[in-house]
Design brief:
By secondary structure, the protein is α/β, with parallel strands linked by helices. 32% of the residues lie in helices and 26% in strands. Strands 1-2-3 form a three-stranded parallel sheet, covered by helices on one side.
Length: 72
């Protein structure tokens, strides 16, 4: 069974690398990661770019979206 892991991101580059490392180091490998970024102004884009080159592109997806609050 494939699972989807959705990560909302807005200027959380300080923690994003740790989060992705933790996910990709799991034993279970049938998953995809979707990062929904609210146009971060920190190093998030560089971190996402690094991991998209490091791992299978079919596992990491990125969407940019105007920030509309946590509940959105």
């Amino acid at each position: 069974m494939k699972i989807s892991i959705v990560i909302p991101n807005l200027n959380t580059g300080k923690y994003l690398g740790y989060c992705l490392e933790s996910i990709f180091n799991q034993d279970y490998k049938d998953f995809e990661v979707v990062i929904v970024d609210g146009y971060s102004k920190d190093e998030s884009a560089k971190i996402i770019d690094y991991y998209s080159k490091k791992i299978n592109h079919k596992k990491l997806h990125l969407a940019y979206r105007k920030p509309q609050g946590q509940s959105d």
